[in-house]
Amino acid sequence: MNDTRNQERVRRVNLRNTSAVTMFCGVSIGYAEALRIAKHHINIQNLDVINNMNIRRAVTGGLIFEIQGKDQIHKADRLAEELKNVFKDKEVYINRPIQKTEFIISGLDDSITEQEVQDALVRICGQELGAGKVGRIRKARDGMGQIWIQCPSTMAARICAENKIRIGWSWAKIEILKKRPLKCYKCLATGHVRQNCYSEIDRKGTCFNCGETGHHIGECRNRSYCPQCYEKGLSYMHRTGSYACDIASVNQTYPRNK
Fold first, then answer.
1. What are 96-137's pLDDT values in tens digits?
2. CATH number of the domain that 35 lies in?
3. What is the pTM of this model?
4. Same domain, residue pair 54 and 113
5. How much of the chain, in percent, has pLDDT values that exceed 70?
6. Do 72 and 116 fall into the same domain?
7. Which residues are in the CCHC-type domain (predicted)?
8. How many domains does the chain have?
9. Pick from 189, 233, 237: which is nearest to 209 by CA?
10. Using 50, 70 and 90 to split pLDDT, how confident is the model at 246?
11. Is 7 among the domain residues?
């Protein structure tokens, strides 16, 4: 019974059935003009995406071209390349975002290094991590080492399939992390981004862990402290906007017109 419940709690890597291309325009050109230019220079029929593409607005104000169906990754790559060629001399920024997954590997003995962890991941994937990130090994509460990993979800699906990985002499446990909520890097609350922030509070340049200035979270040795919750008289021994934050979503909704 307990085994069944534990299996139900195990998270899996959810792969999207779409690939995306994003467009962000600078102050010198609007989105309407950018789209007209793109339509004039790019024959969308030749890219074979006309029946499988939708355009939607990103929370940051840009545009997202979503492509689904067969060969979606290849088609999105081609569309991104065409758009980059069209706007290479204009203030229009084209990107090909890749779905990523974060997970923790725990149960590492004292002799294990970050390079050994990375080598083990490459061995399972059969390829380099590329756009992936490997954190530092830190001591967990049980005295064993743990490390944070971020990599493309297609690779994470292979790495996390068994929820464990052989590193050194023992099996290390893999725990897939929840997807991070939207976070505003101006007021540090969650649920919105800086472009849509109406808060009068400006915490730019402060440490995400302790709220002080002069250093970043990677260098922080202070206790976690949430200035928002402290000001509200709530429990504040946590990072601002973390899952433990009682008012993490206070600023989620703001009026569109002030």
1. 998 899 999 999 999 999 999 999 999 998 888 877 899 999
2. 3.30.70.1130
3. 0.71
4. no
5. 90
6. no
7. 183-197, 207-222
8. 3
9. 237
10. low
11. no
The whole-angstrom distance between residue 130's C-alpha and the CA centroid of its chain comes to 15
Using CA atoms, how far residue 173 sits from 2, 48, 118, 159, in Å, is 18, 43, 15, 11
Q: Is residue 11 one of the residues assigned to a domain?
A: no
- CB atoms closer than 10 angstroms to residue 58: 15
In our burial notation (b when 16+ CB lie closer than 10 A, e otherwise), range 170-180 reads eebebebeeee
Query: According to the 3-state scheme, what is the secondary structure of 166-207?
Result: EECCEEEEEEECCCCCCECCCCCCECCCHHHCCCCCCCCCEC
**Tens-digit pLDDT profile for residues 132-183:** 899 999 999 899 999 999 999 989 999 999 899 999 998 999 999 888 777 7
Residues ≥6 apart with Cβ < 8 Å to 205? 213
Same domain, 172 and 104: yes
Structure tokens that stand for 23 in this block: 């467009």
Residues 6+ positions from 197 with CB-CB distance below 8 Å: 184, 186, 187, 251, 254
Contact 173, 106 (CB under 8 A): yes
Is 200 within a domain?
yes
The domain of 42 spans 18-95
